[in-house]
Amino acid sequence: RLLGEFKKLKVKGGFKSNAELAQSGDARAAQIPRYVRASLWGMPPSIPLTAANHSAKDEHIPNLLLFPPQTTFHDDPAYKSGKLILQDKASCFPAVVLAPPARKDAVVIDATAAPGNKTTHLSSLMHNMGKVGTNAFCNAHAANEQQLYAFERDRKRFGTLTMMLSRAGCKNVEPVNSDFLTVDPLDPKFVKVTHILLDPSCSGSGIVNRLDYLLETEEEENQEEKEERLNKLASFQLMMIRHAMKFPKVSRIVYSTCSIHATENEHVVRAALVSDEAIAGPFHLATQEDVLPKWHRRGMPEEMAKPEDAAPLIRCSPGEDATNGFFVSCFVRKEGTSSTNK
Ligand code: SAM
């Protein structure tokens, strides 16, 4: 059925010339394909290479299709009904790297969820095993039901999140309009959480169609102001990771940003690997084999305390990788350690 939806997609509009695109300032964005995935679990495992005119299957992300950059979907019924989600390839990496369990008793957190691209992706990877006949909002706390808690602190963005979840037909998600940092890891609802996705607010410096704007802004900012802004973001991001590490049963945490700055990426990861007392913490990085091993661009060795710790990290370079700029890391709990809940 979903394959049928893909076949109905229309490739609309012509293609702008490179000169026109350069003039309009979105030359880099124009080189990024449109990436499309189905919102619901159940996509047939084998989609032909040409599921719709001009489409191809992505080589790294299962069930992700790519179309030429100027393809428009906004009038397409499947897109309008929420069955298809337009999501940059790099932004699909975190949910795939987190690899949430598709078990009935799985308990997972998306700590910073709105507008909900990664939440709907997680829901689908968990096979969306909610209670049949209920919706996302009355499915909470049911014993032995799969739970994906999606936190969003901003009220307006929370509204967008709930709309996206409902359009995508997510049955296993409980959206929560709260600050993740105020969540008690020992609350009986959360003690069984095993996987956490953290995609917190960041500078957004990797987003291609904002690059020109950001470069201008950064030019106006002096070096000191820029460092101060990035350091503030990095402190908040580190706080979020440390909080996630307090959940007693959490075994896997993915931290991602759409920033190109090492301050928000490698430096935050480096700090999260040691505890407040500067001793090795209970988490280490997943191995490279465990984190999209076929992806070519990895972390920056010169920015890590141990250069070999860069290999398990993922970077996407705007303009070079047919994606926005992005960063993904994955922490796994060391054998035999449990949370100290400090
Ligand atoms: N993961 C989302 C997606 O793929 O659609 C994008 C997340 S966006 C980069 C970061 C979001 O985290 C924002 O909506 C922001 O309001 C929210 N946020 C920031 N700090 C938070 C906190 N402490 N608790 C919950 N949400 C938070």
Automatic annotation (TrEMBL):
One of its GO terms (cellular component) is nucleolus. Transmembrane segments: none annotated. S-adenosyl-L-methionine binds at residues 152, 179, 199. Residues 208-235 form a coiled coil. One of its GO terms (molecular function) is RNA binding. Residues 15-334 form the SAM-dependent MTase RsmB/NOP-type domain. It catalyses: a cytidine in 25S rRNA + S-adenosyl-L-methionine = a 5-methylcytidine in 25S rRNA + S-adenosyl-L-homocysteine + H(+). The active site is at residue 258. Belongs to the class I-like SAM-binding methyltransferase superfamily. RsmB/NOP family. This is 25S rRNA (Cytosine-C(5))-methyltransferase rcm1. The chain holds residues 103 to 444 of 476 of the full protein.
